[in-house]
Amino acid sequence: MSRTITLAVAQLGPIARAESRERVVARLIALLHEAHGRGARLVVFPELALTTFFQRWHFDDEAELDAFFEAEMPNAATRPLFELAAGLGCGFHLGYAERTSEGRRFNTAILVDASGRIVLKYRKVHLPGHREPEPWRPFQHLEKRHFEPGDLGFPTVQAMGGRMGILICNDRRWPEAWRVLGLQGVELVMVVYNTPQHYPPCRNRITCKTSTTISCSRRAPIRTASGWRPALNAASRRVA
Questions:
Q1: What are the Cα distances from residue 183, in Å, to 82, 102, 180?
Q2: Alpha-carbon gap, residue 68 to 212, rounded angstroms
Q3: Which of 70, 143, 169, 208 is catalytic?
Q4: What is the rounded distance in angstroms from the CA atom of residue 60 to the CA atom of residue 148?
Q5: Cα distance between the two ends of the chain
Q6: Which residues, 6+ apart, have CB-to-CB distance to 200 below 8 Å?
Q7: SS3 156
Q8: Fewer Cβ atoms within 10 A, N terminus or C terminus of the chain?
Q9: Which residue from 141, 167, 143 is spatially nearest to 154, judged by alpha carbons?
Q10: Each residue of 125-175: pLDDT tens digit?
């Protein structure tokens, strides 16, 4: 049976290293309002949407590193976003850095439904980059150092009119991720990433032919006289 869902892809543009959660969440809230006003019922924010891409740096101080992680979700800074989603009846996808009560660190993403409830959580499995600092590089990519591989598999959920799944960045380049999602009957896969603009493009594009894919990156291609501004695209997609 065919169903139609209106989706919005919300690009945030750059986030400064010192930018507060409250300021970032205010940007998310503005985009959620705009998307809902344009008819969207699901808004997809990118990978690690609450902070700068902190894998660019090596931290000797564990407390400094932990400042980029969320110990609970929602928390005081993000709760206004959840409350707004529930008030509008508009779901969203959110990527963030998660620190568990045991001190484990994951690159995590969640799907929040139109009631403001978390219905799906995924932790990135395929971590790119390197573990040890490499001073000769123009920038670091210490994802293997700051995170551990996800331990939740590739889950799906029946929500918002279809069977939903999530992949984060490098996951999209590995066929087993798509295969496992496909075997569960996935219909919509949210593929989010934070790949730097100066990374060489990957020519291997793998998808699941039985599903629709919606992708969202961090960088917005819109520049104004006052600097970068967020970009949002909203479109209807038929599911199945």
A1: 31, 32, 5
A2: 32
A3: 169
A4: 18
A5: 7
A6: none
A7: strand
A8: N
A9: 167
A10: 998 887 788 888 777 887 888 899 999 999 999 999 899 999 999 899 889
Q: What is the pLDDT of residues 155-166, one digit of tens each?
A: 999 999 899 999
Residue of 111, 211, 109, 237 lying closest to 167 (CA atoms): 109
Tokens representing residue 34 in the block = 């705009």
Q: HSE (CB half, 13 Å, CA atoms) of 23?
A: 9
Contact 127, 149 (CB under 8 A): yes
Instruction: Supply the DSSP string of 174-229, one letter for each residue.
Output: -HHHHHHHHHTT--EEEEE----TTSPPP------TTSEEEEE-S--S-EETTEE-
The reply to whether 121 belongs to the active site is no
Answer yes or no: 124 catalytic.
yes
Q: Which residue has the tokens 């996935």?
A: 186
Is the four-CA dihedral 188, 46, 205, 119 of positive or negative sign?
negative
Residue linked to tokens 């060489």: 200
Of 156, 157, 158, 128, the C-alpha closest to 144 is: 128
What is the torsional sign of CA 171, 148, 63, 137?
negative
Tokens at 114, concatenated = 């139109």
3-state SS assignment for residue 62: helix
Rounded to 5 degrees, φ, ψ at 189 are: -115, 125
Q: Which two tokens stand for residue 22?
A: 């409250």
Q: Which of 70, 90, 98, 124 is catalytic?
A: 124
CA distance 159 to 104: 28
pLDDT class for 232, splitting at 50, 70, 90?
low
